[in-house]
Specification:
The chain is α+β, with helices and mostly antiparallel strands and 66 residues long. The chain has one domain (12-64). It is 24% helix and 9% strand.
């Protein structure tokens, strides 16, 4: 089953739970407030983003799950 990637400028729909059609998804956000499934969230630092090795490791781990 593929992992769905969605890039949203305004992600309120995903945060509010309007992602019921997706089975596998991961969120990358620098703001953890409002996420109803924090286990799927890769929280980044707003200044370092994806350049932080711990963020890359977490994202890699979540993308590798089956």
């Amino acid at each position: 089953m593929p992992l769905h990637a969605i890039a949203l400028r305004d992600h309120r729909n995903i945060k509010s739970g309007d992602h019921t059609q997706l089975r596998r998804w991961v969120a990358v956000d620098d703001d953890a407030k409002g996420w109803d499934e924090p286990a799927r969230l890769v929280q980044t630092n707003p200044e370092t983003g994806l350049s932080d090795p711990s963020v890359v490791a977490r994202l890699s781990g979540l993308l590798g799950e089956k």
